[in-house]
């Protein structure tokens, strides 16, 4: 049965919903997406002269929502290996961790420009930058720990040296 499973490098991450840092990053990302959409709709309704800012905020919110929901579904194991969810999740998960952090920081930086500057837009920009920093931090945190359950790759030179040493000992012993 273990032979039917793809190698660990091709599988979606599993049981990551139990890691506190991942939960914080996903929750903050979803809150940021909700805020972007809400501020975009508020700006669209109450201030029609900055129509394009509202459209940008709503589009950014939808993009962040898509990325966060797909990550949540894939992370918690809801997305199966052969399902249609995988077709959507594969490109979204390619933009995971530091790449997603860079995307969020760039989206947030646009909220600080003079053209896009509104009070609520600046708050959303700050939230996006914080979400980006969380994803960059998630990358660093994930790389700092190396799971001990993974078998360490053998060094072929060390193996060859050991075999040569054993051969030499056998030759000198006889």
Summarize the entry for a quick read.
This protein has 174 residues and is an all-alpha fold. It has six helices and no strands.
Mean model confidence by pLDDT: 78
β-sheet strand percentage = under 5%
Helix content: 55-70%
Q: Please summarize the sheet with the most strands.
A: none
Radius of gyration: 24 Å
Please work out how many helical segments DSSP would assign.
6
Order of helices and strands: HHHHHH
Structural class: mainly alpha
Give structural notes.
The structure is a single chain. The chain has helices at residues 20-46, 51-75, 84-94, 98-110, 119-144, 156-173. It is mainly alpha-helical. The protein has one domain (13-143). The two termini are 47 Å apart. The model is unreliable at 1-15 (pLDDT under 50).
Give the tags:
mainly alpha; disordered N terminus; 174 residues
Ordered list of secondary-structure elements with their pairings:
Blueprint: H1 20-46, H2 51-75, H3 84-94, H4 98-110, H5 119-144, H6 156-173
């Amino acid at each position: 049965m273990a032979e039917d499973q793809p190698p660990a490098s091709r599988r979606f991450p599993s049981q990551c919903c139990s890691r506190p840092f991942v939960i914080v990053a996903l929750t903050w990302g979803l809150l940021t997406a909700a805020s972007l959409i809400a501020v975009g709709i508020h700006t669209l309704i109450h201030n029609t002269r900055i129509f394009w800012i509202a459209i940008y905020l709503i589009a950014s919110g939808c993009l962040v929502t898509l990325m966060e929901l797909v990550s949540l579904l894939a992370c918690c194991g809801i997305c199966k290996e052969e399902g249609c969810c995988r077709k959507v999740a594969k490109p979204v998960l390619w933009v995971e961790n530091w790449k997603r952090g860079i995307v969020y920081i760039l989206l947030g930086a646009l909220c600080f420009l003079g053209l896009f500057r509104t009070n609520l837009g600046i708050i959303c920009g700050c939230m996006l930058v914080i979400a980006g920093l969380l994803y960059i931090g998630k990358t660093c945190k994930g790389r700092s720990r190396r799971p001990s359950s993974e078998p360490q790759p053998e060094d072929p030179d060390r193996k060859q040296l050991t075999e040569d040493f054993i051969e030499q000992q056998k030759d000198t012993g006889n």
